[in-house]
């Protein structure tokens, strides 16, 4: 019997299609993509609980769930998420709910014999002025972006908790930090959504109304990186199968676009014929944010979905699923 770093092939994730896999947060953007991927691969024993069925912020409920169900693998994709506006408005929610969810799930997973856990964070864990592209080593080297530090501090605590349980208990807990994600099941709420779904919704509504213009915040100059959530799901399976290291792993596309290029691409995909206007009195946010995903590439994983194809796929989902 080896430790977490030399599991036998029979114990490997992908060869264990009948293993109980708990996907926490299975109705969100990330969790739903992971569920689609696992089902596509032939996993037959997925444990899925809605928030109504299992409140992950309640320690006793989470303990009881793990004691009863005893999952073999856990993918922790449940989180309270949102854009700049939401982080500024609900800082207490962002820090407390995320700390509660991840602490409860990680600790119960260890105590109830889970073989391997993957904790998912976000690229906002890195310092506001991190070197670009951002390597994993940039974590905790400088101050965070103040607008989302509540969420970032919680996610950093999750990475450190996985590392601590590996160090103290020799338990196989790993962390993946995705870049900006988009795709089916994204949040298209007018106020509380991220830049890409917010743009898609606004261009769509402008197209439907026959509006002359769409006004977008900022100058359009910041550089951003986007990864389709189905690519992330593919990377999650890859990490569950191939990676058992102490360090967290960046998961990005490695390709960056300006917000202006993104807006123009979304406008084209949606088919909005009017004008795109930039409100330069509004803040831009971080000037550049690109993750260095070379560690993951060296292990053998690269993304497959182009931004254009991903946007077409996402808009199709939006038209079919978001109340017009």
UniProtKB/TrEMBL annotation:
Substrates-to-products reaction catalysed: GDP-beta-L-fucose + NADP(+) = GDP-4-dehydro-alpha-D-rhamnose + NADPH + H(+)
InterPro entries: Epimerase_deHydtase, GDP_fucose/colitose_synth, NAD(P)-bd_dom_sf
Pathway linked to the protein: Nucleotide-sugar biosynthesis; GDP-L-fucose biosynthesis via de novo pathway; GDP-L-fucose from GDP-alpha-D-mannose: step 2/2
Molecular-function annotations in GO: GDP-L-fucose synthase activity; isomerase activity
Stretches assigned to the NAD-dependent epimerase/dehydratase domain: 21-252
Domain of life: Eukaryota
Enzyme class: oxidoreductase
UniProt xrefs under CDD domains: GDP_FS_SDR_e
UniProt key word NADP: yes
Keywords from the UniProt entry: Isomerase, Multifunctional enzyme, NADP, Oxidoreductase
EC number: 1.1.1.271
Similarity comment text for this entry: Belongs to the NAD(P)-dependent epimerase/dehydratase family. Fucose synthase subfamily.
PANTHER family for this protein: GDP-L-FUCOSE SYNTHASE
Record-given protein name: GDP-L-fucose synthase
Organism whose genome encodes this protein: Liquidambar formosana (Formosan gum)
């Amino acid at each position: 019997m080896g430790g977490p770093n030399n599991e036998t092939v029979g114990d490997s994730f992908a060869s264990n299609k009948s293993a109980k896999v708990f996907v926490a947060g299975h109705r969100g953007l990330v969790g739903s993509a992971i569920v689609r991927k696992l089902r596509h691969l032939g996993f037959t024993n997925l444990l899925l609980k809605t928030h109504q069925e299992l409140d992950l912020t309640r320690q006793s409920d989470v303990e009881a769930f793990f004691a009863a169900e005893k999952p073999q693998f856990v993918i922790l994709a449940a989180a309270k998420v949102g854009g700049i506006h939401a982080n500024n408005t609900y800082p207490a929610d962002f820090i407390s709910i995320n700390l509660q969810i991840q602490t409860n799930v990680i600790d119960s997973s260890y105590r109830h014999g889970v073989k391997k856990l993957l904790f998912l964070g976000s690229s906002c864990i890195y310092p506001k002025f991190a070197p670009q592209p951002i390597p994993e080593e940039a974590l905790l080297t400088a101050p965070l972006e103040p607008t989302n530090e509540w969420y970032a501090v919680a996610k950093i605590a999750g990475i450190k908790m996985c590392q601590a349980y590996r160090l103290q208990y020799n338990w196989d807990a790993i962390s993946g930090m995705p870049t900006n994600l988009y795709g089916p099941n994204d949040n298209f709420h007018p106020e509380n959504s991220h830049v890409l779904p917010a743009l898609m919704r606004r261009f769509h509504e402008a197209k439907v109304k026959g509006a002359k213009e769409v006004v977008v915040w900022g100058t359009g100059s910041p550089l951003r990186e986007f990864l389709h959530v189905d690519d992330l799901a593919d990377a999650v399976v890859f990490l569950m199968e191939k990676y058992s290291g102490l360090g967290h792993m960046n998961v990005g596309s490695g390709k960056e676009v300006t917000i202006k290029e993104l807006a123009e691409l979304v406008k084209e995909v949606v088919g909005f014929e009017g004008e795109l206007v930039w409100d330069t009195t509004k803040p831009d946010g971080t000037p550049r944010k690109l993750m260095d995903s070379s560690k993951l590439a060296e292990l053998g994983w690269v993304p497959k979905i182009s931004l254009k194809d991903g946007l077409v796929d996402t808009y199709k989902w939006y038209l079919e699923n978001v109340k017009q």
